[in-house]
Amino acid sequence: MARVVVDVMPKQEILDPQGQAVAGALPRLGFEGVTSVRQGKHFELEVDDDVDDETLERIAETLLANPVTEDWTVRRVTVESADGSVAGAV
Amino acid sequence: MARVVVDVMPKQEILDPQGQAVAGALPRLGFEGVTSVRQGKHFELEVDDDVDDETLERIAETLLANPVTEDWTVRRVTVESADGSVAGAV
What we know:
- The structure is a homodimer.
- In chain A, strands 2-1-3 form a 3-stranded antiparallel beta sheet.
- The first copy, chain A, is α+β, with helices and mostly antiparallel strands.
- Chain A starts with a strand and ends in a 13-residue tail after the last strand.
- Chain A is elongated.
- The first copy, chain A, contains 2 helices and 3 strands.
- Chains A and B meet through strand 1, helix 1, strand 2 and helix 2 of A and strand 1, helix 1, strand 2 and helix 2 of B.
- Chains A, B: Belongs to the PurS family.
């Protein structure tokens, strides 16, 4: 069993109103020094060991991200056993 | 200038209908071997170097996550210069 993390972010040229809302709220709440906030999605998948990288890439492209407006990264995270944030979720 | 990544996930005991929808769609689209999908949020912040970890933790807790229903992690990512996904966003 392997854990896979997919992070999906709006492309640079795409407006990010959620991130901008957070960035605008920070000074009002007294937090200074944050010059940019971008908000995206974070997926944690638990997959069988025989699922290859190409399949993961297709899953990300097909279901998790919109290739027109979003960029994404896929990375494997080593997990020895069912220990946490994804494992107990089903 | 430092880049900070905050990942926010629903707590284990909280239902995650978005993740379950993705998990349910995968077999219908021909993707086998994914046993669990959890969906959360991924924030990329660009902050001044004098913003300390305690402030980042308070930002995450106050604005980015709901402590009642979500867990989060804060990590710094080293960036030499404005080179990418956060830097060009403002």
